[in-house]
What we know:
The chain is of the alpha/beta class. It has 2 domains: 12-116, Rossmann fold, CATH 3.40.50; 194-309, Rossmann fold (3-Layer(aba) Sandwich), CATH 3.40.50. The protein is built from 11 helices and 8 strands. The strands form 2 sheets. It has a 4-stranded parallel β-sheet with strand order 2-1-3-4, sandwiched between helices. It has a 4-stranded parallel β-sheet with strand order 6-5-7-8, sandwiched between helices. Strand 1, helix 2 and strand 2 (58-62) form a beta-alpha-beta unit. Helix 1 crosses helix 3 and helix 7 (174-198) packs parallel to helix 11 (295-309). Mean pLDDT is 86; it is low at 1-32 and 127-141.
Amino acid sequence: xxxxxxxxxxxxxxxxxxxxxxxxxxxxxxxxxxxxxxxxxxxxxxxxxxxxxxxxxxxxxxxxxxxxxxxxxxxxxxxxxxxxxxxxxxxxxxxxxxxxxxxxxxxxxxxxxxxxxxxxxxxxxxxxxxxxxxxxxxxxxxxxxxxxxxxxxxxxxxxxxxxxxxxxxxxxxxxxxxxxxxxxxxxxxxxxxxxxxxxxxxxxxxxxxxxxxxxxxxxxxxxxxxxxxxxxxxxxxxxxxxxxxxxxxxxxxxxxxxxxxxxxxxxxxxxxxxxxxxxxxxxxxxxxxxxxxxxxxxxxxxxxxxxxxxxxx
Length: 313
């Protein structure tokens, strides 16, 4: 099996040439609008929290372009340089290898690692059984599942941490940050309640998905996730793993196999065709591509897709 080798990240010396220029520019007012806090988020859910808490007083940029698969993001020298000039960097260590390397290389002035404020749990071993790996596949999840944001209560844990950092950087607007954080927390709490109510009475509790991004969601709402691949969405499942998933589908009476928006659906679609079951989208909300969509609208689409697949009343 051919696996794409991990591409080298930007060498520190090369990044330093650009960094030096931006640091000098930062001494003349930074890269954002005067009076705003420049925040650099590593991918969409952290971008969302930073934007919602900061409101009009922050300028948030993401290291992961819209439509890109965040697991595989690669940074240009200019992006690496932005880490040094940003007022605050919000990222999740162990999720994006290139971002981890860039943070280590540049030493940003203020860094918030979501892994320090969210309770990450080990990935379930059965989601990896039979999966083929290489010694270095370009991902550094370790033994932890990084997809915490699919449980709204865990994403809510990041909100006060961002609020505190922004208030320290811009004390004049601390009360606005606090009000924004409270509103976002209320919205996440309401979303959690919608999920709990919507998934409380379902004929089926097992769902099958293309990669193991939904462990926290399953745990929160008393469901069972059966994943074709593990936490790396591009890892190719072995024949043994496919056989295990087929057995689960038949034994549990699963009617739908879910695939995602940012990775190839081929394996999930082929497996569904072989088993005579439906396919549908279950979005890991690692990025938003449709205009007008956001974390909340996609999460509600996911809830409806699960309700249909699990025959929820």
